[in-house]
Amino acid sequence: MAQRDHNPFPFSEDNKRYLTYSCYLKRRFGGKVFKVPLDLGLGCPNRDGSKGAGGCIFCSERRSGDFAGDPCEDIAAQYAGVGGMMRKKWPDGRCIAYFQAGSNTYADTSLLKAVFERAAGFEGCVGVSVATRADCIDSEKADMLAGLSEKTYLTVELGLQSIYDKTAALCNRCHTFAEFLDGYSLLRERGINICVHIINGLPGESREMMLETAARVGELRPHAVKIHLLHILKNTRLAEMYEKGEFRAMEKDEYISLVCDQIERMPQDVIIERVTGDGARDQLIAPLWSLKKFEVMNGIDKELYRRDSWQGISAPAAI
Prior knowledge:
This protein is α/β, with parallel strands linked by helices. The chain is 35% helix and 16% strand. The chain is built from ten helices and nine strands. It has helices spanning 21-29, 75-87, 109-120, 139-149, 165-170, 177-188, 207-220, 237-243, 252-265, 293-307, and strands at 33-38, 94-99, 125-132, 153-161, 193-200, 224-229, 232-233, 271-274, 284-286. The strands form two sheets. Strands 1-2-3-4-5-6-8 form a seven-stranded parallel beta sheet, sandwiched between helices. Strand 5 (193-200), helix 7 (207-220) and strand 6 form a beta-alpha-beta unit. Helix 3 packs parallel to helix 4 and helix 9 (252-265) packs across helix 10 (293-307). The two termini are 33 Å apart. The model has no long low-confidence stretch (mean pLDDT 91).
C-alpha cells in the first residue's frame, strides 16, 4: 500500500494530516468542546494613546470580537446567549469561555482574576481562553494566570502576526518581537498554555517572510498556533491601503500552498487551532474567496494528500 493511501499522522482522529484543536479537545475531555466568544469591552494600548492610536490596521471596530457577545451585557448573559445558540448545533458539547475581543489582560489584575474565575465556574465550562497582547503581560498578571491554570484548562492567546518589526510598525502593533518574547517567557516559565496567532498576507511580506514567522513560532514550542488569512475589513486603515493599491490580497491557491508549507514546518505536538479565519460577511472587502471557509480547509487537506505530507515533516527535531 502506498503511504498516500492511509493517514500517516498519528494523532489525528478526523482524517486530517495535522493535530487539530477539535481532536485535541475530544481526547482531553472525551467529547465535543466549543468556544463561546465573550467581550469584556476592554481596549488596547495601541488604541487608547498609551502606545498608539487607532489599533492595528487590520483590526475591526469590534476589536476582533465580531462574533462575541454584547459588551453591554454581563458575561453570564453573554455566555448563556452565545453558548445557547451554539448548543443548537452541539447539544451535548461542553464549552470554553473565550475572552476574545480586545486585549483581555489590559485591566486591573484583581478584576480580571474575579472575571476569569467566575467564567470558569459557568455551567458546562471546562476551560478559559484569554486573548491578549504579549506587552500586556507582566509578572503580576502572569502569576494570576498561573493560579487560574491550576483550576481550569487555560490557554492564553498572544497576537504576534509576524516576527518582523518592520511589519509590526506598518501594522501599528506598537511592540517589537523582542517584547513579544518577553511576555511569552513570563507565561512559559509558569507552565501556562500559549496559543500564538500569525497572519498570512500582511502588507510588504514575502512568502519567505511568512514561512520564517511560522518556523520561528514552531521553535518556541507553544501549546497551539492559529494561522489566519489577512482579511481586509471595512472602516479599517488596511482597507484604505488596499483601495489605494498599496498591496494585494492573497489568492486562494497561493494561500493553501503557503499554509501547507507552514504546517510541514510546525512540530507535531503543537495544536493547529486554525488554518484560516472568519471575516464577517457584511464587513469583508477582500479576499471574498475566504467566505467559503470549508473550501479553503478542504483545499489544504487535498494539497497535503497530494504531497503525501503532514505536520512536522520538515520541522527540526526537538532539543
